[in-house]
């Protein structure tokens, strides 16, 4: 039935076009005095293109009021424009990139059109070796159909543009930025579709937090769907589905409109579609994710950056002999500080993802400026624990009072962000596909888990009695606790050096020395009975802000060296290996991920595992997410993870990968491929 209806529409369209080709030009000219209803001009991004470099040309087009031009696939009526270039010797032209069209339904026929100004973009390749000043005459002849609500007219135009070879400076940067925004962006993930008795359902992977308005699928593959059939759009977690009439038999290409003038270039293949979640399944997922987040937050307390702060705060209760009421008040204040920071980080992640960014847990560590601030903060805490100075008002670690406990909890949560432990990855990954209230509950659960030890000490008197009695040993223990904080600073320095280079690390060390000098001067004042000093506080603020701003402006270093025998992850490389029926182990890591580095040294890079990989011909791909690559981020999101580590094993015959645990063992990896 659909094929018959499509054939009838095609025949009707052909007959109409033939009739219009004969009669319409004279009729339209008699009505309007001119046969040109689209104003066109060629615009070059650079008036002096550089030899050996690409040059983008825009065919800037403005329809006359009440008229419209057609997209590359016109729909049920019309025909696409033809473009014929006459170019200088050696210059080649690529395929046009068309902006996202709009829909126009007339007499039951669906048209994909442009009723407002638009600009297809074409990339020309200028040959190398041309001398500066060489003329480049660009000529274009185009034939197209332009229509109003009552009449269609075939037209032709000859356009010209004369350029000269030069330095390649962009002379139309602002205009091209606007035109490029309207060109559909390639979707990094694979879409799927399924055909049933009602038609076809196309599933497009898009994060649930990403905003989509007025979604509509424009097919490029001719005959894939019924152009005029209604399209029903629905969300299924991180997938947007389009249900319409059609019976495609092979891969589908098209453009998914996601907003006014915004779109994604989509390629869909036959495959399974996700089932629509029920209310019960959403609640089950949310509860499991919440439990995982609480457990993961609890484990974070043993990390070297959190343990000293927790220990000192716990011992302050024993030293101060706090009453039951005061102990509970401090425990609640500490918990509030932890949970609020976790909620703030969660809201930032969800907000950035809604704006299209592929960020995850510890996203701030993908920016060198944030790393240097954390490094200097760790240095300051370490010097405080070592006794170089005492924290001026407002007091926090090691001091009593609700305000101090709140600040300590906030600090503990903030400085714990580089860590992702067991249970956290799956929990936070699930949070990103849940409705936002449930997602925020999961982030709150992470904070509750992180605060649980101190909360228990505050509310269970027996636990406080179990703590060692106060004494001189506490000062010694405090000095010992400075060691893991110094180690944290060293680890952050390593991350900064790997991410931003030796120059950035050198400036960070200078800043750390400056912080140490300022804190030493402030400590000397305190030991003579004076206050730390506002001048010292201002100096610290200048060092923190100035070093972050300076390092943010430094150039990015060259690519990192890969582990011998491994290859950098790309989806194309993965697809190539899978087409060869090779078993593939893919691991996603980052320099700031402590769990990742432990797994790499304890399991992945061991001789036994490498020998087993070689014996079983397991290919290894490394996804380095240190810099927050958005393409890699979307791939990680597609596997329900909020960040790294992520370990995937692709068996030769399996359609989907096996997601391995976040804590690896040599035995687990050595068995892959057997």
TrEMBL record:
Q: Which PROSITE patterns match?
A: THIOREDOXIN_2
GO biological process annotation, one example: cytochrome complex assembly
Intracellular or extracellular location(s):
Cell membrane
Q: What is its main location?
A: membrane
Signal peptide range equals 1-28
Gene Ontology CC: plasma membrane
Q: Could you list this entry's UniProt keywords, alphabetically sorted.
A: Cell membrane, Cytochrome c-type biogenesis, Membrane, Signal, Transmembrane, Transmembrane helix
What protein am I looking at? Thiol:disulfide interchange protein
Specify the Thioredoxin domain's residue ranges: 548-674
Q: Which InterPro entries match?
A: Cyt_c_assmbl_TM_dom, DsbD_gamma, DsbDN, Thioredoxin-like_sf, Thioredoxin_domain
GO-annotated molecular function: protein-disulfide reductase activity
* Membrane topology recorded in Swiss-Prot or TrEMBL: Multi-pass membrane protein
Pfam families documented for this protein = DsbD_N, DsbD_TM, Thioredoxin_7
State which residue ranges cross the membrane: 282-310, 331-350, 370-389, 410-434, 440-460, 480-498, 504-524, 531-552
Is Lyase one of the keywords UniProt gives this record? no
């Amino acid at each position: 039935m659909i094929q018959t209806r499509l054939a009838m529409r095609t025949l009707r369209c052909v007959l109409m076009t033939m009739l219009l080709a004969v009669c319409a030009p004279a009729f339209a000219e008699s009505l309007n005095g001119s046969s040109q209803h689209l104003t066109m001009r060629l615009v070059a991004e650079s008036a002096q293109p550089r030899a050996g470099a690409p040059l983008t040309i825009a065919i800037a087009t403005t329809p006359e009021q009440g008229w419209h031009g057609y997209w590359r696939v016109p729909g049920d009526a019309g025909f696409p424009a033809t473009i014929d270039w006459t170019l200088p010797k050696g210059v080649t032209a690529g395929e046009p990139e068309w902006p996202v069209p709009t829909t126009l339904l007339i007499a039951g026929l669906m048209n994909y059109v442009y009723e407002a100004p638009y600009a297809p973009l074409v990339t020309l390749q200028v040959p190398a070796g041309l001398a500066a000043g060489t003329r480049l005459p660009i000529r274009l002849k185009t034939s197209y159909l332009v229509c109003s609500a009552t009449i269609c007219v075939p037209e032709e135009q000859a356009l010209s543009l004369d350029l000269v070879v030069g330095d390649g400076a962009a002379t139309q940067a602002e205009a091209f930025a606007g035109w490029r925004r309207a060109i559909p962006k390639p979707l990094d993930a694979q879409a799927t579709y399924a055909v049933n008795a009602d038609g076809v359902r196309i599933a497009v992977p898009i994060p649930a937090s990403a905003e989509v308005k007025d979604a509509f699928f424009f097919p490029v593959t001719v005959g894939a769907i019924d152009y005029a059939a209604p399209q029903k759009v629905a969300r299924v977690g991180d997938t947007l589905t389009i249900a319409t009439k059609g019976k495609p038999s092979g891969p589908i290409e098209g453009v998914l409109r996601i907003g006014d003038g915004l779109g994604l270039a989509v390629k869909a293949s036959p495959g399974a579609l996700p089932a629509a979640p029920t209310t019960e399944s959403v609640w089950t997922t949310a509860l499991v994710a919440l439990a995982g987040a609480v457990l993961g937050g609890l484990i974070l307390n043993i990390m070297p950056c959190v343990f000293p702060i927790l220990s000192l705060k716990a011992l302050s209760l024993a030293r101060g002999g706090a009453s039951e009421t005061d102990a509970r008040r401090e425990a609640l204040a500490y918990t509030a500080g932890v949970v609020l920071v976790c909620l703030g980080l969660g809201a930032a992640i969800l907000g950035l993802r809604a704006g299209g960014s592929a960020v995850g847990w510890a996203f701030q560590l993908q920016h060198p400026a944030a790393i240097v601030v954390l490094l200097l903060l760790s240095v300051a805490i370490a010097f405080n624990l070592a006794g170089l100075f005492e924290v001026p008002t407002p007091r926090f670690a090691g001091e009593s009072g609700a305000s101090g406990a709140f600040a300590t909890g906030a600090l503990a949560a903030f400085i714990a962000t580089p860590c992702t432990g067991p249970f956290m990855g799956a929990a936070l990954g699930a949070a990103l596909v849940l409705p936002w209230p449930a997602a925020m509950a999961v982030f709150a659960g992470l904070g509750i888990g992180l605060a649980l030890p101190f909360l228990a000490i505050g509310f269970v008197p027996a636990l406080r009695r179990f703590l060692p009695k106060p004494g001189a040993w506490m000062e010694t223990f405090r000095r010992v606790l400075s060691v893991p904080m110094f180690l944290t600073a060293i680890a952050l320095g390593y991350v900064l050096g790997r991410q931003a280079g030796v120059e950035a690390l050198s400036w960070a060390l200078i800043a750390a020395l400056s912080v140490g000098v300022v804190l030493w001067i402030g400590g000397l004042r305190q030991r003579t009975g004076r206050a730390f000093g506002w001048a010292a506080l201002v100096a610290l603020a200048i060092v923190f802000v100035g070093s972050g701003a300076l390092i943010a402006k430094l150039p990015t270093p060259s690519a990192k060296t890969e582990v011998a025998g491994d290859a950098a992850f790309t989806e194309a490389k993965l697809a190539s290996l899978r087409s060869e029926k090779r078993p593939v182990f893919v691991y996603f890591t980052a320099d700031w991920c402590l769990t990742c580095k432990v797994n790499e040294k304890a399991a992945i890079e061991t001789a036994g595992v490498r020998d087993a990989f070689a014996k079983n011909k397991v290919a290894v791909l490394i996804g380095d997410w240190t810099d927050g690559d958005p393409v890699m981020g979307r791939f990680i999101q597609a596997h329900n993870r909020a960040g790294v580590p992520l370990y995937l094993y692709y068996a030769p015959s399996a359609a989907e990968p096996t997601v391995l645990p976040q804590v690896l063992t040599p035995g687990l990896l050595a068995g892959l491929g057997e």
